[in-house]
């Protein structure tokens, strides 16, 4: 069983990349694509989903993120695409939401119904609470960091709205830009990404 692949990223699109691994180009779908930069050499943890119709490879920056993906798709009614949409929010954020049983926030994610959110929490709340304690050593401190990040995201969203961007464009930007305290720079990066995405769609 292959857990990860190492190679050079030769192409980055809106939700997938192509990794040159031992001279072979591999198409890998990844969450938070902004973390993956063209021409970088990268270790990518992978999960292969195969059925009679197709074979799709999903990739992750860390082993922890891969474990979360595998956990999510093991639940009834939750497929790989929904799991990737969830992880687009940031695996650390999702980990914290599940650990504290915040179904309302999970429901705000596209394709996540109340039933799915409750099922995720029912199955993984205790596991992820322990996981988070080991990861951070301080659950409350992690929640404080999460609130700060949410503040930056709210500022980013407000700025994008004032500039006239549609909700779908803002959502796309949030999935592909790592928002931090430098809101102006994040907005500039988002505008470039949205413009690039629009051009790709036209082609």
Automatic annotation (TrEMBL):
Chief place where the protein resides: cytoplasm
GO BP of this protein: DNA recombination; DNA repair
Pfam families recorded: HHH_5
Record-annotated Helix-hairpin-helix DNA-binding motif class domain positions: 70-89, 104-123
Recorded GO CC terms: cytoplasm; Holliday junction resolvase complex
Cell location: Cytoplasm
Entry keywords, A to Z: ATP-binding, Cytoplasm, DNA damage, DNA recombination, DNA repair, DNA-binding, Helicase, Hydrolase, Nucleotide-binding
Region (Domain III): 148-203
GO molecular function, one term: hydrolase activity
Family recorded in the similarity comment: Belongs to the RuvA family.
Subunit structure: Homotetramer. Forms an RuvA(8)-RuvB(12)-Holliday junction (HJ) complex. HJ DNA is sandwiched between 2 RuvA tetramers; dsDNA enters through RuvA and exits via RuvB. An RuvB hexamer assembles on each DNA strand where it exits the tetramer. Each RuvB hexamer is contacted by two RuvA subunits (via domain III) on 2 adjacent RuvB subunits; this complex drives branch migration. In the full resolvosome a probable DNA-RuvA(4)-RuvB(12)-RuvC(2) complex forms which resolves the HJ.
Function: The RuvA-RuvB-RuvC complex processes Holliday junction (HJ) DNA during genetic recombination and DNA repair, while the RuvA-RuvB complex plays an important role in the rescue of blocked DNA replication forks via replication fork reversal (RFR). RuvA specifically binds to HJ cruciform DNA, conferring on it an open structure. The RuvB hexamer acts as an ATP-dependent pump, pulling dsDNA into and through the RuvAB complex. HJ branch migration allows RuvC to scan DNA until it finds its consensus sequence, where it cleaves and resolves the cruciform DNA.
Domain characteristics, as noted in the entry: Has three domains with a flexible linker between the domains II and III and assumes an 'L' shape. Domain III is highly mobile and contacts RuvB.
Protein name per UniProt: Holliday junction branch migration complex subunit RuvA
Lineage per the UniProt record: Bacteria, Bacillati, Mycoplasmatota, Mycoplasmoidales, Metamycoplasmataceae
């Amino acid at each position: 069983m292959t857990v990860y692949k190492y190679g050079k990223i030769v192409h980055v699109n809106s939700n997938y990349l192509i990794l040159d691994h031992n001279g072979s180009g591999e198409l890998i779908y990844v969450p938070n694509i902004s973390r993956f930069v063209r021409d970088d050499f990268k270790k990518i943890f992978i999960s292969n989903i195969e059925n009679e119709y197709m074979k799709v490879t999903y990739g992750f920056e860390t082993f922890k993120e891969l474990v979360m993906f595998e956990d999510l798709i093991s639940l009834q009614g939750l497929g790989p695409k929904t799991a990737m949409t969830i992880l687009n929010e940031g695996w650390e954020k999702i980990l914290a939401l599940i650990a504290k049983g915040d179904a309302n926030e999970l429901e705000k994610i596209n394709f996540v119904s109340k039933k799915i959110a409750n099922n995720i929490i029912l199955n993984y709340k205790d596991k992820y609470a322990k996981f988070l304690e080991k990861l951070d050593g301080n659950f409350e401190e992690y929640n404080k960091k999460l609130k700060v990040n949410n503040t930056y995201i709210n500022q980013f969203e407000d700025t994008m709205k004032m500039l006239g961007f549609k909700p779908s464009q803002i959502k796309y930007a949030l999935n592909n830009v790592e928002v931090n305290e430098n809101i102006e720079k994040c907005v500039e990066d988002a505008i470039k990404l949205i413009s690039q995405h629009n051009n790709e769609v036209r082609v």
